UniProtKB/TrEMBL annotation:
Domain Leucine-rich repeat-containing N-terminal plant-type as annotated: residue spans: 34-66
Protein's recorded name: Receptor like protein 9
Entry keyword Signal: yes
Record keywords, A-Z: Leucine-rich repeat, Receptor, Repeat, Signal
Signal sequence range: 1-21
Organism: Rhynchospora pubera
Superkingdom to which the source organism belongs: Eukaryota
Length: 333
């Protein structure tokens, strides 16, 4: 299971600030009648009884966000409101076509609704006509990897969150997504196993999490060094081993790296951490660390969080010889 810190989801929040979309909840604009009817149909189909949608002005309804000028629905949040559990006690087959009238939709959350699959002939591929849809949250449902190919057929998507769909299993679906324009993919706690596939052809990737799966092997031949736009990498809570490829130091956009709770062998000083001066968050806890910390920390003058606790000491003592007050970061635990 992954840790409590969810940096990928923080990235989603930053990318989806409603103000960027000139959105408004509760404006004086009349919503589109076709979209109002579609919303009521969606509520009924998904058994979202917690939604108190009444009246003709759907832009005033809770969890509905409309564009400030056009009145079109651009954001819809149907997550269950009271915690990480599914609203439906049964497995739900989703008819994805019920969302097609929302042609200007940009962000959609269907988290924790018990969705296990799509109705035959009405899968996510039908959303290929929703060319404004950028963000999709399907976390904590009962989906398996059969839905991956249909999601990859929605070319407008930039952010997909599949966290907590524990029935995915098999290899991480890199090949399906690498030809898309996807920028953020959260696969935390999905039940994937095996080694990490080659990522080097996924040029658009900015944030990637496979935390809390059952992945193993080395990462030296995964093509990570070719991901020049990568800002966040979370490989924590797996069984990765071996050394880190030195070429990771060439990824000048990296801001967050979480490699904790693996079996990486990391010797300080290391050229990777010497060169990546953009880092703000680094977690290496519960790995095999050795060497002396003093020669590397001088490069971390702007890092905010550094986690190193519970490491395994190998061959020689791991130590820091530089006073903490010299640097603008903080240790956790």
């Amino acid at each position: 299971m992954g840790n409590n810190f969810t940096p990928i989801l923080l990235a989603l929040a930053l990318l989806l600030l409603p103000v960027q979309w000139e959105s408004v909840s509760g404006s004086g604009l009349l919503c589109k009648e076709e979209e109002r009817r579609a919303l009521l149909h969606i509520k009924a189909e998904l058994s979202c009884s917690f939604l108190e949608w009444e009246g003709k002005e759907c832009c005033h309804w809770e969890r509905v966000t409309c564009h400030s000028r056009t009145g079109h629905v651009i954001e819809l949040d149907l997550r269950y409101p009271d915690g990480p559990h599914m609203i439906n006690a049964y497995s739900l087959l989703l008819n994805a076509t019920i969302f097609l009238p929302l042609r200007q939709l940009r962000s959609l959350s269907l988290s924790e609704l018990g969705i296990c699959d799509c109705v035959a002939g009405a899968g996510f591929e039908s959303w290929s006509t929703l060319n404004k849809l950028k963000m999709l949250d399907l976390s904590y449902n009962e989906l398996n990897r059969s839905i991956i190919s249909s999601l990859a057929q929605v070319p407008s998507l930039r952010i997909i969150d599949l966290e907590g769909n524990v029935n995915m299993t098999g290899n991480v679906p890199v090949n399906e997504f690498s030809a898309t324009n996807l920028e953020v993919l959260n696969l935390r706690d999905c039940g994937f196993n095996g080694s990490l596939p080659y990522l080097g052809d996924w040029s658009s990737l900015k944030a990637f999490s496979v935390s809390g799966n059952d992945l193993y092997g080395t990462i030296t031949s995964t093509g990570l060094c070719r991901l020049k736009n990568l800002e966040e990498l979370d490989l924590s809570y797996n069984n990765f081993a071996g050394t880190l490829p030195p070429c990771l130091g060439n990824l000048s956009s990296l801001k967050l790296v979480d490699l904790s709770h693996n079996q990486f062998q990391i010797e300080f000083p290391t050229s990777f951490f010497e060169r990546v001066i953009s880092l703000r968050y680094l977690s290496l806890s519960n790995n095999q660390l050795e060497g002396t910390l003093s020669l590397i920390l001088v490069h971390f003058r702007i890092i905010h969080i550094l986690k190193l606790w519970h490491f395994q000491q190998v061959h020689r003592t791991f130590e820091s010889k530089v006073p903490i007050c010299h640097f603008n970061f903080r240790f956790l635990n």
